[in-house]
Amino acid sequence: MATERQPLPPSPVQPDRQDPRSRLENLARRYYSPLMAYFRKRARSPEEVQDLVQQVFLRLSQHNRQEVHNPEGYLFQTASNTLKDHYRSAAVRERFARDQSLADRSDLSPERVLLGREQLGLLVGALRQLPERTRDVFMLRCFEGLKSPEIAHLQGISVRAVEKHMNKALAHIGQALGSQEEG
Question: Does position 162 have pLDDT exceeding 70, yes or no?
Answer without folding.
Answer: yes
